[in-house]
Amino acid sequence: MKCFTCALLGVVLLFPLTLFGQFYEYGQDAVSIKWSSFDSENYQIIYPVGLDSLAMDFTDKLEYFYPFHSRVLKWEHKKIPVVIHNESSFSNGVFVWAPRRLEVFTNPDPTGHPQNWMTKLALHEGRHAFQVSKLEQGITRGLSFIAGEQAVGAITGFLPMWYLEGDAVDAETRFSYTGRGRLPEFEMGIRAIMLERGNPYSYSKAILGSYKDYVPNHYELGYLLVRHGRRNYGDKFWQDFQQSVARKPYVIDPTWFSMRNYGIRSKRDYYKQALKEYTQHWKKIDSLRLGDNAELFTHQDHKHYISYHFPQYYEAGKVIALKKGLDQIPEFVIIDSLGSEQRIFRPGLLNTGRFSYRNGKIVWDEWAPDIRWSNRNFSEICLYDLNSGKSKRLKSRTRYYAPAFSHKGNRIAAIEQQTDNRFFLVILNLSGEVIEQVSAPDNQYIQQPAWMENDSSLVMTVSNVNGEYIYSYNIETGSWNKLFYNQHNDISWPQVIGDSIYFSATNTGINNIFRLELSSKNLTRLTDSRFGAFEPSLMPGLQEKVLFSSYSWRGYNVSVVDLDKIPDRLSVNVPDSLRQLDFSSTKEEKEIIKGSFDLEPKSYEPKPYRKWTNLINIHSWLPLYFNYLNPESAITPERIDVNPGLTLLSQNLLSTAVGVLGYEYSEKMHFFHTGLRLKGRVPVFEIDFTYGGLPFVHANSQNEQLQVSPDRRNFSLYSYIPLRLNTGKYITIVQPQFRYQYSSDIFPNANNTGYQSGVHRTLYRLYAGSYLMKGRRDILPRLGVTGFASVYYTPFDKVNLGSLSYSGITCYLPGVLKHQTLKLSLTSQIQEPLKYYMSNNINMPRGIEPFSAMKLSKYSADYVFPMAYPDLNIAHLLYVKRIQGAVWADYMVGKDVLINSPDRYVTDRSFFSYGADLLFDFHFLRFFFPFSAGVRTSYIPEQSEFRPEMLFSIDIN
User: Fold this and answer.
1) Contact call for residues 458 and 473 (beta carbons, < 8 A)
2) pLDDT score of 955
3) Contacts of 883 by beta carbon, 8 Å cutoff, 6+ apart
4) Cβ neighbours for 53, distance < 8 A, ≥ 6 positions apart
5) 44, 82 contact by CB (below 8 A)
6) Edge-to-edge strands of the sheet including 545-552?
7) Which of 104, 115, 131, 233 could form a disulfide with 178 if both were Cys (CB 3.0 to 4.6 A apart)?
8) HSE (CB half, 13 Å, CA atoms) of 507?
9) Are strands 457-464 and 306-315 parallel, antiparallel or unpaired?
10) At residue 542, does pLDDT exceed 70?
């Protein structure tokens, strides 16, 4: 019982730190969508009307793999809701435990490998369902009776993110021919670090990332660590790993105790042990390389991780490429052989990342948001003219991917992926008008088109259950032709010159550039890359040289290979033993994979899924009160505001309605709270009501005492419209807002002879902002502007309170060096009181206590900059990733400022402060989300006084 009590206390303290991740809203679908649902044995499927076939096929996949997941983790889960979204242009899936659900986005990855997208989701997200539900045992199950689903969600925080995602990648790999674990590119980043850099990053850096160096993500590392455990210790290793978390969360690091039972001293030692084993395998493969004649186009010595993608000839001695890196946002650049660069243009949020250059023009595909609905977005083709310096979108609200110029440069080919999972080849003119739309053969998944030399035909990759192909489409005859079958080896970014197709492929266990001669069907390997060769390109008249991107631990470089010097000894195929360490499937896994191709469709009975009847979904509760709807107000550096009481939490499965019902006992008084947030309509509505506590009393004189009852009533209605505009590399948001609030506070009546109860307040506010996308190392936007204007007044009060208007504008300007930002702000406030001043709605200068005034104007300047990226690991307690600083100054001019002490009077007054901040960005106890904490020192010249204060925040994005 003592252990259970300790666990309960730990979970209660953990709730505020994990509630953002638990009650996760991925977004909302358009209000116009109608929904259907049906039940299978282990899942409830909710999906847009019209997707019956896709939903049923996906359910068959989930149910087919269920027993195999169950056997691996030795667990069975209860029925889980699955929500299918089909209007997103990106590819994703997410499993959330509170409320418990699986959300999948049906749009296939336009750069993906040859694996059916819905199969991958069934395997990957289906494994997550088993991982988290397996925690519902022992003490954690007891906690779930006390706290609902959030108990399991909180305990999930004890499982490393690398395990959760690595094990899910392992599932998609072992139960299919082409999961990510079999892709050379998936382990390429870690392999390059170990072979080229020579030693691994610290365990903390490897799992938590860095601002200084590129660190492969927790999917890539996690798969290697999970496979190492299964290979050496069996499935039971990970079964015990999870069971220890579920049954012993009170020991703070239960996975450590689990590993100790297998003779492993720590997760850090396990990490080193795993990398040592993999490195031995990688060194063996590396020693067998024969080498090739590829060389770097330019020998630039980059201090930071920088990558150049899709290099294409611009003119003699110059290449145009897409440049990315830790140090910057993506941009198109021209590079010459001496290493000098010229920036051309910065695009918006890239989709495939592929661009095509011809005749002084660049074309690419770009993510585009819906103006209101976050689960509806688009992929639009953009064009930039180097001669005029102008860019344009060819057509809005499309789902076009991987555009490619024809050789003449007068047409563009792209792949269209529609919301019902139908695939098309589209051919456009330079105005964006569709010349031709062609259905994919048998609706197979087509990707990455490229024009043949005479522009009368195109080639593209085609994926189905049997693997990957190259097809051609003849525009004149309208016929498809199968040119090449590459089994389950991946093919990417084909290019055609003359009689040959050039592409990157995984046939040799490492991505290399290949040439397929169409007349003879001969396949020749052109490179023997150490880590990977990608994205080949040629130009008419320069067929003797191929440009491509080659990988190193410092990023992707532009390389070139001379076709006249290709060694004859380069082979095409290699044995599985020289591929990834766990490339080969076992006999049992092969049988499972084969069975997944021969599923017998099951019968399901769809029925309408009504939004309003499913609005309430109570998933969690707590024998305490915490403000879940506004957690920021309840979490401060000084305290976590949790009081005795009871809280019930509701969130519907479509994430359009969140509700809280609570009772709180605080300061010897009773409070009742209700709140509801509705996000399924164009305006968002938030409704809150609180009963209890003492009303605020505004007496006629300071000596007058009124007897009041603890029956304060506070009601508020808040509505806003979150609008996201499509402005390329700038993030642009517009949000009109309205708030109505009633409170039963007490004011003098109109005759000043008594008192009246109740005051009504209204707020009208408009916010707008546009700022440049932030790079990995940017603290604030380097360029942008935000502004707001607000009017706050009491419409029915003619005696006590008047009106208040306030507005502000903030500008972000580049600092002297990279990642430094100068932030300039101007805010002002004017109020017209009747009898009482209202509280300020703009902040005072930092370090100065608030004052009320008739008019306030504030001017602020902040200079924010990174100081160091130490990647400092202090045992397993702290991992410090960045130290940042700021110097600032605030100046405020006040008219008719109300001074309350020692005597109450009104005067004009100015306020001034300046100071500096020192912040440390770090992870605590290897918790996945980063913290930021530090100190601010303010100097107040008027008092000749320094005032220190603590700063604290947590980044949950």
Assistant:
1) yes
2) 74
3) 866, 867, 868, 869, 870, 918, 919, 920, 921
4) none
5) yes
6) 295-296, 555-562, 545-552, 533-537
7) 115
8) 23
9) unpaired
10) no
616 three-class SS: coil
Contact in structure between 102 and 95 (CB atoms under 8 Å) = yes
For residue 809, what are the β-bridge partners? 787, 826
Q: Where are the domains of the chain?
A: 33-288+586-609, 308-571
pLDDT (0 to 100) of residue 575: 78
pTM (predicted TM-score):
0.94
H-helix segments, 576-726: 587-596, 631-634
* Three-class SS of 787-855: EEEEEEECCCCCCCCCEEEEEEEEEEEECCCCCCEEEEEEEEEEEECCCCCCCCCCCCCCCCCCCEEEE
Rg, Å, the chain Cα set? 31
606 vs 46: CA distance, rounded Å? 9
CB 190 within 8 A of CB 224: yes
Nearest to 212 by CA among 816, 781, 868: 868
Distance (Å) of CA 430 to CA 115, 402, 406: 33, 15, 11
- Residues in the chain, total: 957
Query: Tokens 């049954």 belong to which residue?
Result: 247
Mean pLDDT of 920-937: 92
| Tens digits of residue pLDDT in 44-71 | 999 999 999 999 999 999 999 999 999 9
Amino acid at site 455: D
Q: Are strands 555-562 and 545-552 parallel, antiparallel or unpaired?
A: antiparallel
The pLDDT, as a whole number, for residue 875 is 83
Give CA angle at 509 (507, 513), nearest 5°: 55
What letters, b where the CB count within 10 A reaches 16 and e where it falls short, cover 232-263?
Answer: ebeeebbbbbbbbbbbbbbbebbbbebbeeee
Domain 33-288+586-609 class?
Answer: mainly alpha
**What is the CA angle 882-887-891, rounded to 5?**
145
- Pull the structure tokens for residue 66: 């269920």
For residue 437, count other CB atoms closer than 10 A to its CB. 11
Label residue 396 exposed, middle or buried (CB < 10 Å: 0-12, 13-18, 19+).
exposed
State residue 907 phi and psi, 5-degree precision. -155, 160
> pLDDT grade, residue 685 (50/70/90)?
very high
Q: What is the distance between the alpha carbons of residues 877 and 213, in angstroms, rounded to a whole number?
A: 21
For 351-376, how does the pLDDT look when each residue is reduced to its tens digit (9 = 90+)?
999 999 999 999 999 999 999 999 99
Give yes or no for residue 638 having a pLDDT over 80: no
Cα 93 from Cα 128, distance rounded (Å): 10
Q: Which CATH code of 2.120.10.30, 1.10.760.10, 3.20.190.10, 1.10.10.2910 fits the domain covering 308-571?
A: 2.120.10.30
121 Cβ contact list (under 8 Å, min separation 6): 58, 93, 104
Please report which confidence band the pLDDT of residue 904 belongs to, taking 50, 70 and 90 as the band edges. confident
